Backbone:
């Protein structure tokens, strides 16, 4: 088995707290911070740190607005985030194929 693909996995996305965030955002145009927190059962602080890391990598866009006079923070994947996630999934598929058919 060739270990090279493992070293090519994007470490920002691959971290166990960030991969589910990227997965949820890939399946939805945008999600509120509250929705992400509830879906992932994360604390505010933990989710904030992961979102900030993804934002700094250019993968996630964060928008702060108001809804019914209450603050609303929403997150969505950027174009770069969508591409990085698609590349990540493609690489995972390559690793799985290699594991299933070790030649």
Residues:
């Amino acid at each position: 088995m060739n270990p090279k693909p493992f070293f090519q996995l994007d470490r920002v996305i691959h971290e166990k707290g960030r991969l589910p965030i990227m997965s949820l955002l890939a399946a939805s145009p945008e999600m509120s911070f509250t929705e992400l927190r509830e879906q992932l059962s994360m604390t505010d602080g933990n989710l904030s740190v992961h979102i900030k890391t993804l934002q700094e990598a250019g993968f996630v866009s964060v928008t702060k607005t108001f809804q019914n006079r209450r603050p609303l923070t929403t997150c969505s994947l950027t174009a770069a985030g969508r591409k990085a996630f698609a590349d990540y999934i493609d690489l995972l598929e390559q690793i799985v194929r290699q594991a299933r058919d070790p030649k």
